[in-house]
Amino acid sequence: MTTPPAINKKSRARVIYHGIMRHWQLYLLMLLPIVWVITFKYVPIWGSQIAFKDYKFAHGIAGSAWATPIYKHFLKFFTSNQFQRLMTNTIGLSLYNILVGIFPPIILAIALNYCRSKVYSKTVQMVTYMPYFISTVLVVSILTQMLSLSGIVNKAIEATGGKAIQFLSKPGWFKTLYVFSEVWQKTGYNAVVYIAALAAISPELHEAAIVDGANIWQRILHVDIPGILPTAITLTIMACGRILTMGYEKVLLMQNLQNMRASDIISTYVYRIGLAEGMQFSYSTAIGLFQSVVSLLMLTLVNGLSRKLSDNSLW
């Protein structure tokens, strides 16, 4: 005889309740992250509707009239003179950052994994890890001082007979300076993930490789690389999902009138027209919504390609 559905539901609810009460400390730890996600990720969705309205601050979100046509602000962005330049700069800078930034953490993690001196390994790991905790403002300040006309870089160029270069004023140098300063700041932090992945590789695989006569380079190629490949693919997929929504803080701090042609990306443009200068809330929200939708589509596309080509994916 089957149990009535009502009893099953009560039993299930009782099990869930007792499980929560038994592990209430863990659920309490989860409370703050959940509140943060709801507050900063889900509540703003309500405000996204102003992308389809002619928002007036005095009328509020609900009281503002709908745009005519409803996609007016999106069309304004797609047909603007800025669209092609912003898309080119944003995608170019993101791809450059992904391609250059993917290998240094892997190389550092593998090198530390084979380091025989634990003291030296921990010291290098700490030194390379620390820049991640330096604020973006301080990183840009250090970069500005080093690359100024009287900075250490230009002093070295002049000492070898060269001519001083105004690095931060030249559009051609912007992407390279941004990307390699990112590599310096985040390589140690990103390497921690790969070090953990290397630690999860079974020692028996290395022992078998050594018995078969494999040298250190063959072990790296045939044991370590396949072991960390799923982690690398996962991180790359997540990076591709942020291809249009990369943080604007560092770009904004490095930006000036001379390098604006190469440094102006979608995020800095949204900040400028939405807050700094234009106060065009509906227009800037439409651009931000466009970024989010494209990022979701990119994440889904890259994840699907990864699943077909390597059997590794986020879902």
The third-level CATH topology is: MetI-like fold
Percent helix, as a range, is over 70%
* Relevant CATH superfamily: MetI-like
Q: How would you classify the quaternary structure?
A: single chain
Number of domain modules: 1
Helix/strand class:
mainly alpha
The low-confidence runs, each spanning 5 or more residues with pLDDT under 50, are none
How would you describe the shape? Answer: globular
Residue-averaged pLDDT: 88
Broad CATH class? Mainly Alpha
Tell me the β content.
Answer: under 5%
Strand order of the largest sheet: 1-2
* Tally of individual helices: 16
Distance between the termini: 39 Å
CATH architecture descriptor name: Orthogonal Bundle
Radius of gyration: 25 Å
Give a quick rundown of the structure:
This protein is mostly helical and 315 residues long. 73% of the residues lie in helices and 1% in strands.
Describe the fold and architecture.
The chain is mainly alpha-helical and 315 residues long. The chain has a single domain (72-310), classed as MetI-like (MetI-like fold), CATH 1.10.3720.10. The chain contains 16 helices and 2 strands. The protein has helices at residues 5-22, 24-47, 60-63, 72-78, 83-101, 103-113, 118-129, 136-147, 152-159, 171-199, 203-211, 216-240, 249-254, 260-263, 266-276, 281-310, and strands at 53-54, 65-66. Strands 1-2 form a two-stranded antiparallel sheet. The protein starts with a helix and ends in a 5-residue tail after the last helix.
Task: List the SSEs and their pairings.
Elements: H1 5-22, H2 24-47, E1 53-54, H3 60-63, E2 65-66, H4 72-78, H5 83-101, H6 103-113, H7 118-129, H8 136-147, H9 152-159, H10 171-199, H11 203-211, H12 216-240, H13 249-254, H14 260-263, H15 266-276, H16 281-310
Helix pairs in contact: 4-16, 5-10, 6-10, 7-10, 10-12, 12-16, 15-16
